[in-house]
Design brief:
CATH architecture of the largest domain: 3-Layer(aba) Sandwich
Number of strands: 9
Number of domains: 3
Structural class: alpha/beta
Shape: elongated
Helix content: 40-55%
Number of helices: 18
Radius of gyration: 31 Å
Largest sheet: 5 strands, parallel
Strand content: 5-15%
């Protein structure tokens, strides 16, 4: 995905970030990007590289928190064959790989203090010492570092070197959380819906109420959370117009579940019961407009259904000992549904039309009588 996807939007914040990247892209000064997880710090770093004179060189990212402490030095600076157990050949480190380009040091706040000292020397001297080497190697790289931590607090706690902080913080950039640029959310939703659409399917869309709920959602996982949510919906509901009422609660962020509950309460019990249905059934209902019919049209009354069944079958003979009317009606209803399913080859939609029932009503009865469908 192109790095520019982070800067999608018309909010003042998005405009300011785009202008800032254009302004500092061609500088060789070190950049420190701070911001919450998922706000696009690596995308910003890539954008800086792509708009710089170094675009012909490599962009080399490394997550400093993902590599064990005893291996990080070798990953960053390389090593020579035989320098330690397992070093069976020379290895070029990330700084050398980024020569002429940009190195991105992600989660720099998680780097150990002894590695911070070595990194400080590299930033000062622009020379690296591969593990086991007898001479230093000059490097020409643009360094961009990033962290979700408050480095000034880390300095106060003794976990980050103050001199390294000032060496890194030449050009500070802050990536804002998504909740601070709500204006950009609809455009981001459309962009990622187009990006994640499956094959020849149309991109998913959102009803007005669902879109409003997504705009007002706080997005604790920021743009990364938004991407993952759109990927999920694009897989389960390819090409559909999505209604918040028709999404199972376990597929929604927790903070949207109460919003959905309020909508369902206003819509009525028939829609609320539909939330137990599989996604593929809900998607088909949404595509055929049946969810809106459920909201706007009342369900047939049970006594009306029972009357229809009795008229279709004829009033049964009442035995001398009497009978359970409820059980008799259930038996008749089960037999009719079973016949309709057989005639429709188990297709729920066609069966519902044959019986002139709402699909939700039919599905409830199929489940009640444990009948098989296609």
């Amino acid at each position: 995905m192109k790095s520019q996807s982070f800067f999608i939007g018309t909010s003042p914040i998005a405009h300011a970030l785009r202008r800032l990247v254009t302004t500092i892209a061609n500088s060789n000064a070190t950049v420190l990007v701070t911001g919450e997880s998922g706000t696009g710090k690596e995308l910003l770093a890539r954008s800086l590289h792509e708009q710089s004179d170094r675009v012909g060189g490599a962009f080399v990212p490394i997550n400093c928190s993902a590599i064990p402490k005893d291996l990080l030095e070798s990953e960053l600076f390389g090593h020579r064959k035989g320098s330690f157990t397992g070093a069976v050949a020379d290895r070029i480190g990330r700084f050398e790989l980024a020569h002429g380009g940009t190195i991105f040091l992600d989660e720099i706040g998680d780097m150990s203090l002894d590695m911070q000292v070595k990194l400080l020397r590299v930033l000062q001297e622009r020379l690296i010492d591969p593990v086991g080497a007898t001479r230093q190697v000059p490097i020409d790289v643009r360094v961009i570092a990033a962290t979700h931590r408050d480095l000034e607090s880390e300095i106060q706690a003794g976990r980050f070197r103050e001199d390294l902080y000032y060496r890194l913080n030449v050009l500070p950039v802050v990536t804002p959380p998504l909740r601070e640029r709500q204006q950009d959310i609809p455009e981001l939703l459309r962009f990622y819906a187009e990006h994640y659409k499956l094959g020849s399917n149309k991109a998913i869309e959102f009803s007005a109420e669902f879109l409003e709920a997504l705009v007002n959602y706080p997005w604790p996982g920021n743009v990364r959370e938004l991407c993952n949510l759109i990927d999920r919906f694009s897989t389960l509901y390819a090409g559909q117009m999505l209604d918040l009422r028709a999404i199972p609660a376990n597929l929604l962020p927790k903070a949207l579940v109460p919003v959905q509950a309020q909508m369902l309460e206003r819509s009525g019990p028939a829609v609320a019961q539909s939330m137990t249905m599989p996604p593929e059934v809900l998607a088909e209902m949404q595509a055929e407009g049946e969810l809106d019919q459920m909201v706007n049209q009342p369900e047939p009354m049970d006594n009306e259904i029972e009357s229809i069944i009795m008229l279709a079958q004829g009033m049964p003979h009442l035995p001398p000992e009497g009978l359970s009317l409820k059980d008799r009606l259930a038996e008749i209803e089960r037999n009719i549904i079973e016949q309709a399913l057989e005639r429709s080859q188990g297709n729920v939609s066609r069966t519902a039309k044959l019986l002139n029932l709402q699909r939700t009503t039919l599905i409830e009865k199929i489940n009640k009588y444990e009948l098989r469908t296609a």
